[in-house]
Specification:
CATH class of the largest domain: Alpha Beta
Number of strands: 17
Helix content: 25-40%
Order of helices and strands: EHEEHEEEEHHHEHHEEHEEEEHEHEEHH
CATH superfamily of the largest domain: ATP-grasp fold, B domain
Number of domains: 3
Structural class: alpha+beta
Shape: globular
Largest sheet: 6 strands, antiparallel
CATH topology of the largest domain: D-amino Acid Aminotransferase, Chain A, domain 1
Number of helices: 12
Radius of gyration: 21 Å
Strand content: 15-25%
Distance between the termini: 25 Å
């Protein structure tokens, strides 16, 4: 934005009801520290684990995170926040402890930095559509499909992308067809990864190397989601690629691909601790050490995956690069981690877009995009 442009008011949403609540708070602190304050006024709104919305700020969130990042929780503030669900009034509605109503600034755009269910899955997006508030990221359908690892793979297969072998077990199937479900799963072979279908950031994921570990792994995944997905282990390097939408209908852009190598033998895969806690568990390389033609192919496939979901705004696509030269897509993340050390931010920084510029790009894209069906 130019210096003479009128400042826009951004509502930054963080926290939320999912198990990824602490990651959202970490992301929010990163964005608050990097956003261009000469171009944007920010209203920071924290959402508690039971779904209440309150005003907060960088100082409060930083204090919460300083205590215990992995278990950080936003529990509320002095003013509860409500959004009007109607046209013509984009003001933040504030209610103090005595029940008095106040009006905050009118919002131009919302940045929902909410990861996981009840935030990244189309629910917040639907609320913002009802409120007629522009927002960063994918719309309702793309967010919902991108949150569900089952339907995501169906969309990828329909678009001609290669996915690895997998099986899905619904709550009804686990209750009434357990033996048949286990038979389907074991046919995948070992190792395999048991995952909640609609969760992220490695919560509830277990690597299974033998049958005795399978049922406990399924029960662990079911603590996060009644519907689970089991994926066959794929031999290959894990390569990621960031996607950033194009302006005014232009084609999306892809970052240089990046690779995360887990170097700590205590981490069997890129789990929560390796991502967010340990500073020495993993090494990031961007661009990834791939032949130039393979880098370009991967970038094209990342865009193809974005379009397969009818994505908007941003996504991060995760692939396996196999020893025989195949690129097998694992998943996309429609609201990837956005902290100063997150892979999405790092890949774009290495591609030539700084953290502050990336935030501005996303907010600009949100303001360009119409609401409703498109």
């Amino acid at each position: 934005m130019t210096e003479n442009a009128q400042k826009k008011t951004v509502a930054l949403l963080c926290g939320g009801r999912s198990s990824e609540h602490p990651i959202s708070l970490i992301t929010a602190v990163g964005v608050l520290g990097a956003i261009d304050s000469s171009a944007y006024d920010v209203v920071t709104i924290g959402i508690t684990k039971d779904g209440r919305w309150y005003l907060t700020n960088l100082e409060e969130l930083s204090t919460i995170l300083d205590a215990a990042p992995a278990h950080a929780e936003f529990t509320g503030g002095s003013h509860q926040v409500f959004l009007p669900l109607g046209a013509g009034d984009s003001r933040v509605h504030l209610v103090d402890a005595d029940g008095n109503l106040e009006y905050g600034p009118a919002l131009d755009v919302v940045f929902p930095l909410i990861h996981g269910p009840f935030g990244e899955d189309g629910t917040i997006q639907g609320l913002l559509e009802l409120a007629e508030l522009p927002y960063v990221g994918c719309g309702v359908t793309a967010s919902a499909v991108g949150m569900d690892k089952h339907f995501m793979k169906v969309a990828f297969e329909s678009a001609g992308l290669e996915v690895g072998p997998y099986e899905v077990v619904t709550d009804r199937q686990w209750t009434h067809e357990r033996e048949e479900s286990l038979k389907r799963i074991t046919a995948l072979g070992y190792p395999m990864f048991v995952k909640p279908t609609r969760a992220g950031s490695s919560f509830g994921i277990t690597k299974v190397d033998k049958f005795e570990e399978l049922v406990p792994a399924i029960e662990e995944a079911r603590r996060h989601d009644a519907k689970i997905i089991v994926e066959a282990g794929i031999v290959g390097r894990e390569i990621e690629c960031g996607v950033l939408d194009g302006h005014h209908g232009d084609m999306p852009r892809a970052s240089y691909p990046g690779e995360i190598e887990v170097v700590d033998e205590n981490h069997g895969f890129y789990d929560f601790d390796a991502k967010y806690i340990s500073k020495s568990s993993a090494v990031t390389r961007c661009p990834a050490d791939l032949p130039k033609d393979m880098q370009e192919r991967l970038r094209a496939l990342a865009v193809k995956a974005f379009l397969a979901l009818d994505g908007e705004g941003l996504s991060r696509a995760d692939f396996f690069y196999t020893p025989d030269g195949r690129l097998v897509i694992n998943e996309v993340n429609t609201m990837p981690g956005f902290t100063p050390i997150s892979m999405y931010k790092t890949m774009w920084e290495n591609t030539g877009i700084s953290y502050t510029e990336l935030i501005d790009e996303l907010l600009t894209l949100a303001l360009e995009r119409p609401l409703g069906l498109r």
